[in-house]
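2024-03-11 09:14:02 INFO worker-7 job=invfold-0412 stage=load source=structure_tokens
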């Protein structure tokens, strides 16, 4: 993805290379480069100082470590890749499977593929824990509802979960009041 002129200007100023860029741009103009091409030609000579190397020129990882690793589910591979996206020290030996390594390499290859990775897998990675939390809350409310039914018998059979929750809180208050009363009985009176 190519930087806009404003982005390039801001980056070169941050890097302290803006004056050198302007000088090179003027040299290209004086050398006969078309005015419409001067900016782009100069920009190619000033890549970002912290830019990652082109994937085509990056050294290839030793993939021998992946041989013999069993496959994992796509959700497991995506979850592993998600956790490793910004970790530069990961090697193929760290991957749970060849597919997980491949998915990580694909997701890292460009901003567009990273965006596509998030679009495809975020729901599968993030939503299961949320669904699990909802299930735990549902079970907690059902447990309270069942306890209310046991305490009040058939009269509580038709109560909903909110009513059961209210009754449970009221029972907690009653228990607290009894505890306070008992502790007051055991204290000697001070005159």
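2024-03-11 09:14:09 INFO worker-7 stage=emit residues=191
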């Amino acid at each position: 993805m190519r930087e806009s002129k404003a982005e390039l200007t801001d980056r070169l100023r941050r890097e302290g290379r803006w004056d050198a860029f302007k000088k090179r741009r003027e040299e290209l103009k004086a050398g006969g480069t078309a005015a419409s091409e001067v900016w782009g030609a100069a920009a190619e000579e000033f890549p970002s100082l912290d830019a990652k190397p082109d994937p085509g020129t990056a050294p290839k990882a030793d993939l021998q470590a992946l041989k013999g690793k069993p496959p994992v589910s796509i959700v497991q591979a995506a979850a592993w890749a998600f956790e490793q996206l910004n970790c530069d020290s990961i090697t193929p030996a760290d991957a749970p499977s060849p597919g997980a390594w491949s998915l990580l390499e694909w997701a890292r290859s460009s901003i567009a593929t990273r965006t596509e990775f998030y679009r495809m897998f975020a729901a599968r990675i993030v939503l299961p824990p949320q669904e699990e939390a909802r299930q735990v809350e549902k079970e907690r409310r059902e447990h309270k509802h069942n306890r209310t039914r046991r305490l009040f018998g058939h009269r509580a059979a038709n109560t909903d979960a909110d009513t059961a929750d209210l009754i449970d809180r009221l029972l907690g208050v009653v228990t607290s009041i009894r505890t306070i009363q008992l502790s007051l009985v055991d204290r000697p009176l001070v005159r």
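2024-03-11 09:14:09 INFO worker-7 stage=report msg="The CA atoms of residues 69 and 96 lie 7 Å apart."
2024-03-11 09:14:10 INFO worker-7 job finished
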